[in-house]
Write a structure and sequence with these properties.
heterodimer; A: mainly alpha; 2 domains; 0% strand; B: 6-stranded mixed β-sheet; 25% strand
């Protein structure tokens, strides 16, 4: 997006604004993408939790289509409620950030969120509706298909992430999108400053677009952080009996906490490095050159991704203490 | 600093004095799982805790093993007052105790060897980890199965792995909660043979919760629980006690 036209050329303002709009649109899409990833993860988790219930419904004669519709209604309702919440927040938030949002435009969040939830939830819902009822009511021992050697807490954390590849990928992708957006925005902003800021028009445009863009990137990073926390929380819930066993065999609490933090850091490392690398590549493509500042921006963004993901592990790790160890060990 | 148990095994003594444990159920009612339980177990003893479901067998094991806390009373294992331990000291106590569970509780992604080693993963230990896992698996009859995943093992084999895991710290006390409950009678008998052999070879004290009279009859002593209270405490070594009748009759 480096603009090299001389100021005597006509239409330069339009060119800048077009580029700016394109950038904002991309960031907006990224926010929606992270939201969609959230929906996929939430729906998959909900289906997994209620595997037995769905299996029973299938056993008593519910057709697959009905099960699919049942799950989609749930997902759609959650999406609609999220849209309502978004509408309620959009108007005051817009006023606060000096980005006026009309009521009618804010209300568009309801159908948009519902549609997004339905699209994101369709695949997990279809998979659940197709599952073998007997398998669902008698869940097989969850296990890995391949053997891994483990000699350290770090190794165990890596194995735990590999055991749920789909969920791990969603967490990495969600965080990666935020880091990607941050890397791209900072790269573009710096290039932008070199090209247009300092002129009256450039300053005006930069000020106008910066707030919305940074809000969008901030939102993707916050969502990425929440997605990592969600992945860790779901992993912890699924592995609660294993955690209870490790505790019963004498693992101190700090080592259990470290295990969860390392899983978060693992997600952060993959999402941070992946997102920053892609962001750097996109920045080069967008701007047309690799400036000296861009690799530094990418490294900083990747480090921020790791930090965010590690911080995201705090809440799930705190939940460790609430695990009913004795009850989990005695479950038949 | 890591507190690692002494790897030379001697049986632990266990002393419970007026132990009380209450649970609040969802409906707001209170369940008294241990109602002033007092019990002394000598080193190397093999004690069956029996009683109907909900009588407090598992609760007592959890309290002795330090995975649940008593509301009143004291529990002492060797010279450790378990009921007074917190944090790292409590975790260290758990390393002096081996746990075997009804549903094995193996880590599904780990091989038999790594399941045995799971308790020692965070620690530096004075032994070669892989070699020790191999020895323990051989001791429970699983030589050559070190690389097998739990999903590819039978229930009996999984329970053997769980027993090997429980022995990784060479504990003086083994707590077995319905160790044969998920196994057919023949496999269950094999597992019980294994536990008895371990007791003979290592002198390990064993507290074993079971509702199976056949399993209980092979122990030295039978402690029957009802509503969190000890209703019978019978020495089975003379060999003239009809355990099935004792358990069916609900009293001695």
């Amino acid at each position: 997006m480096t603009l090299r036209e001389g100021w005597i050329k006509k239409g330069v303002a339009t060119a800048i604004l077009t580029a700016v709009d394109r950038k904002s649109f991309v960031l907006f899409l990224l926010v929606l993408l992270v939201c969609a990833l959230f929906c996929v993860n939430a729906t998959s988790a909900a289906v997994r939790t209620r595997c037995s219930e769905l299996g029973v419904l299938a056993c008593v004669g519910w057709p697959r289509r009905t099960l699919f519709t049942y799950l989609l209604i749930e997902v759609g309702t959650v999406g609609a409620l999220a849209g309502l919440a978004g509408t309620a927040v959009a108007v005051p938030a817009g006023a606060l950030l000096d980005l006026p949002v009309s009521g009618a435009r804010a209300a568009l969040a309801v159908p948009a969120a519902t549609l997004l939830a339905l699209v994101a939830g369709a695949v997990p819902a279809a998979r659940a509706a197709r599952s073998d009822p007997l398998e669902a009511v008698r869940p097989a021992v969850r296990s890995s298909r391949s053997a891994h050697a483990v000699r350290s807490i770090r190794g165990l954390a890596a194995i735990n992430l590999l055991r749920v590849p789909g969920r791990t990928a969603l967490g990495i992708l969600s965080l990666g999108v935020g880091v990607f957006a941050l890397t791209l925005l900072l790269a573009v902003a710096i290039a932008f400053r070199g090209a247009v800021v300092g002129t009256v028009l450039g300053d005006a445009v930069a000020v106008q677009v910066r707030t919305a863009d940074y809000v969008a990137v901030g939102a993707t990073l916050v969502l990425g952080c929440l997605a990592v926390a969600d992945v860790l929380y779901l992993n912890l819930r699924d592995r609660s009996a294993e955690i209870a066993t490790l505790r019963a065999t004498g693992w101190p609490e700090r080592h259990l906490t470290r295990l969860i933090a390392l899983e978060g850091a693992g997600l952060g490392l993959a999402g941070g490095v992946g997102g920053a690398a892609l962001g750097l590549g996109a920045g080069v493509w967008f701007i047309g050159e690799l400036t000296t500042a861009m690799p530094l921006i990418a490294v900083g963004a990747a480090a921020l991704g790791v930090l965010i993901a590690t911080l995201a592990s705090i809440a799930p790790a705190a939940g460790l203490r609430r695990l009913p160890t004795a009850t989990l060990l005695a479950e038949e | 600093m890591t507190s690692t148990p002494d790897l030379t095994t001697t049986g632990s003594t266990v002393l419970l004095d007026g132990v009380v444990k209450r649970y609040v159920l969802d409906e707001g009612t209170e369940l008294v799982a241990a109602d002033g339980v007092s019990l002394a177990v000598e080193a190397g003893g093999l004690v069956a805790l029996t009683g109907p479901s909900g009588s407090g067998k598992s609760t007592l094991l959890h309290l002795v093993g330090g995975v649940d806390g008593a509301d009143a009373g004291t529990i002492t294992v060797d010279d450790r007052k378990v009921t007074a331990l917190r944090g790292d000291a409590l975790a260290a106590h758990r390393r002096h105790v081996g746990f075997v569970f009804q549903r094995f509780n193996l880590l599904g992604a780990l091989t038999a060897r790594d399941n045995v080693l799971a308790p020692v993963v965070p620690f530096k230990v004075p032994f070669d980890k892989a070699a020790r896992a191999g020895e323990l698996l051989a001791a429970v009859g699983l030589a050559g199965r070190e690389g097998s995943l739990p999903s590819r093992m039978s229930g009996g084999q999984q329970q053997r792995v769980a027993i090997a895991r429980a022995l990784i710290w060479s504990p003086g006390l083994l707590l077995a909660d319905e160790p044969t409950g998920n196994l057919d009678s023949r496999t269950g008998a094999d597992i019980l043979d294994l536990l008895l052999a371990l007791r003979s070879e290592r002198g390990t004290t064993i507290l074993l919760a079971t509702h199976d009279p056949v399993v209980a009859a092979r122990c030295d002593r039978l402690v029957r629980l009802q509503d969190g209270r000890i209703t019978d405490d019978v020495d089975l070594r003379p060999g003239d006690v009809d355990v099935a009748a004792l358990l069916a009759g609900g009293g001695s």
